[in-house]
């Protein structure tokens, strides 16, 4: 099967027990079923891909052009649309649903999400700086960045210097996450360890070809 994506929602973390009694921390993700909204082919679009949908919502909540576009699949309207590149689009058709059945227990997959936003953060929180000493003449500078550049030459701060600024709220991917358990009746998939994003955050599960 070609590499496919599945869109899900992060429900949170818990733990399960392995066959030998070991404790396994897992992240619970509710994924799918994601219907195929559009099939793109090399003849009509210049490349082969699938457009899948997730998070259904009433038709009046989307624009009229989107209503007409998504109605062709006959599965209703969805809040989230995502394009997935595939090698052979002829294997799929509009309205076909992708679910957690595409994965197997023990499989390694890639997980992508949007990390938690931390707002404006200082250098100690953002870059794990050690900070200034607490005594010996240091006053009100304990969490400051410290020296950031030079004096006469080159008289500027180099690009890429680690400084305070916006932290988090970025696209983050975790590779080779292990599938611990799959519960198709509830559209749930359990992954070992943590994945990016807050609770109810949108998560993309990518099956490797």
Q: What's the arrangement of secondary structure elements?
A:
Layout: E1 5-17, E2 23-31, E3 34-40, H1 42-45, E4 49-57, H2 64-71, E5 77-85, E6 97-98, E7 108-114, E8 119-121, H3 123-127, E9 165-167, E10 171-183, E11 188-192, E12 202-206
Antiparallel strand pairs: 1-2, 1-12, 2-11, 3-4, 3-6, 4-5, 7-10, 7-12, 8-9, 10-11
Distance between the termini: 7 Å
* CATH architecture heading: Beta Barrel
- From the alpha carbons, calculate the radius of gyration and give it in angstroms: 23 Å
CATH topology: Elongation Factor Tu (Ef-tu), domain 3
In DSSP terms (H or I, runs of 4 or more residues), the helix count works out at 3
Number of E-state strands: 12
Domains, number: 1
Our estimate of the beta-strand percent is 35-45%
Nearest-integer average pLDDT: 92
**Main sheet attributes: strand count, strand direction, barrel closure:** 6 strands, antiparallel, barrel
Structural class: mainly beta
Q: Helical proportion?
A: under 10%
Order of helices and strands: EEEHEHEEEEHEEEE
Strand order, sheet with most strands? 1-2-11-10-7-12
- At the first level of CATH, the class is Mainly Beta
CATH level-4 homologous superfamily: Translation factors
Global outline: extended
Low-confidence stretches: none
Pfam families: Ribosomal_L3
Keywords: Ribonucleoprotein, Ribosomal protein, RNA-binding, rRNA-binding
Subunit structure: Part of the 50S ribosomal subunit. Forms a cluster with proteins L14 and L19.
Function: One of the primary rRNA binding proteins, it binds directly near the 3'-end of the 23S rRNA, where it nucleates assembly of the 50S subunit.
